[in-house]
Structure formats: structure tokens, C-alpha cells
Amino acid sequence: MKVGFIGLGIMGKPMSKNLLKAGYELVVLAKNKGAAELVAAGAAQADTPKEVAEKADIVITMLPNSPQVKEVVLGSDGVIEGAKPGCVVVDMSSIAPLASQEIAGRLAEKGIHMLDAPVSGGEPKAIEGTLSVMVGGSEEVFDKCFDVMKAMAASVVRTGDIGAGNVAKLANQIIVAINIAAMSEALVLAAKVGVEPELVFQAIRGGLAGSNVLDAKAPLVMDRHFEPGFRINLHIKDLSNVLETSQEVGVPLPLTSSVMQMMQELTANEMGDCDHSSLIRYYEKLAEIEVSRQR
Fold it and tell me: How far apart are the C-alpha atoms of 72 and 78, rounded to whole Å?
């Protein structure tokens, strides 16, 4: 089974490397940043998304948002023009559920299948090959592509039909954003009172307040490491999709809306390319305190 991969950024490049390690024949888009490294590791290359699709049985896309996915899949020289009937597009980007359904409908007219399969775990888990994948699409197509997705992930779960994968990802991003905000409030309070944040972290991480978010982000905050594993700008994009979807179905999301405003303020202060753990800087500014191991 030949796999095409389009989108070799922070997430896509290590995911592609794991496919090569698993023994899959890989075709990458030559103009993608990082393509040369993949070609050196054994991947073939193509000049357009159409050519990638012509050479592949499964085409994976890992792109920033709905417009980019639509352009690559449905645009001029897009995947839809090169894919053969029976080919599967596995969109592992995080986009709006309605956009996934629209793209899938257009592909279906040509006999091309689609899964929406966004991921969670950030760059570290992409490198490790231990991502969580949330998948929408038919069971038959899901079963066909399961092993390919599993080569990049620890967990691959079908959540329903097309669009359901991105609904699950929206839920994931709500919980992650609010967890980071809650962690930030707690550590800033501890620091302001004069209790070492590191000791508070160690005290609470094994109890009910413990979480993967706390374990992953608190050490980065205390070490002042805000290099992006997942950029604030990308989380804003995901929360925009969350709020757009919530408006369409009439579900109020007051906590999500509040965190969105905080992230937008950080972006206005030129922190959009920092890791989303930088949300703590919003609270630090208000409290006039810095959370670190040695304050």
C-alpha cells in the first residue's frame, strides 16, 4: 500500500518518518518544507497534490485549516484530479466538521473515499508515534486504513461518520485549553502567595487535579520553555472552529469563549507563535508575578 503525505510541518514530518519506519512506501510533495529530509530517508517525491494522488493508494493531508485542505484536495492540480476510484483521502488536519463533510461529498462524486482523522498529542507524541487519532468515516474505509494510522499513533478510535473525528477533536481542544487556563490560575496563585509552584505541582499531580496537560505543560512553564509544541495561533484556529460549530448548533461555551479572548490578547502581544502553555503569561501579567522554579 503506497501512502502519499501532504503537509510536512511540526506534526507532519515526524508522522511521515514513522510511516517510513513502519515500512510503507511514501510519496511526499516536493515543495513542502521538510520534503528533502524525507526523500533522503527513502520517500519518493511529486510536484503537485495531483501527482501525489496518482502515485498513492492513500493520501494523508496534515494542513493548517479548512481552506488549505480544500485547496490541496479540491483545487487545481489537487488530489481529486489524480486519485483513482477507491483511493482514500485521510485528512489528519484539524478543521471544521462541516468542511470535512463538504470535501468528502465532492470526493465521493469521483468514487474517492475519505476519513477525517485529526490527532492529539503535539510534536512529542508525533515524534514518538504515540498520537491519539479521532476518526470519522465508514467502518469499511476505517478498517482499510487502520494499520496506516496505527503506525503513527498509540490510539486510533472511530467516533462516527464523516465529521465525527473533527467533532471529537473540537471537544479535545476545549478540554486542553481550559486545562491550561486552570493550571495557569493555580500556579500563579501559588507563586503570588509565596509557595513554590514546583512543590504545588508535585503535591497535586497524583490527585484528582492531575492530568496529562498538567504533566506536560507545568514543567515547561516553570522552566520558561515556550518554544512551540503547539502554537497559540493554531489553538486559536481550533477554538474558532469550536465556537463556529457551537453557534451553528446553539450550544453556549462560556469558558471556551473566555480562553479564546485570552489567547487572542497574547497574539496581539506577538506571542501567537509561542506554545499554548504561554497562556500563563496572561495571568502572570495581571498578577505581576512569574511562575518559575527559581523566582
Answer: 5
The verdict on whether 144 is a catalytic residue reads no
- Check: pTM over 0.85? Answer yes or no: yes
Q: With bands split at pLDDT 50, 70 and 90, how would you rate the model's confidence at 294?
A: low
Of 218, 134, 220, nearest to 173 by C-alpha is 134
Q: At what angle do helices 164-193 and 254-268 cross, to 10 degrees?
A: 70
| Residue-wise pLDDT tens digits, 229-259 | 889 999 999 999 999 999 999 999 999 999 9
Q: Which residues contact 252 (CB under 8 A, 6 or more apart)?
A: 246
Spatial distance between the Cα atoms of 196 and 177, rounded to a whole number of angstroms: 24
Residues 6+ apart with CB under 8 A from 293: 196, 197, 198, 222, 223
Query: Residue 157's Cα: distance from chain center in Å?
Result: 15
Selected catalytic residue, list 13, 17, 50, 169: 169
Q: Where are the beta strands (DSSP E) in the chain?
A: 2-6, 25-29, 44-46, 58-61, 88-91, 113-116, 119-120, 131-136, 153-160
49-100 tens-digit pLDDT: 999 999 999 999 999 999 999 999 999 999 999 999 999 999 999 999 999 9
User: What is the C-alpha separation between 260 and 267, in angstroms, rounded?
Assistant: 11
Among the listed residues 229, 39, 232, the one whose alpha carbon sits nearest the alpha carbon of residue 127: 229
Q: How many other C-beta atoms can be found within 10 angstroms of the C-beta atom of residue 180?
A: 26
Q: Which of 49, 39, 98, 52 is nearest to 73 (CA)?
A: 49
**Contact (CB, 8 A) for 9 and 39:** no
Q: Which three cell numbers stand for residue 164?
A: 465525527
Q: Is the dihedral of CA 205, 217, 130, 263 positive or negative?
A: positive
The bridge status of strand 88-91 relative to strand 113-116 is: parallel
The closest alpha carbon to 59, from 34, 36, 31, 93, belongs to 93
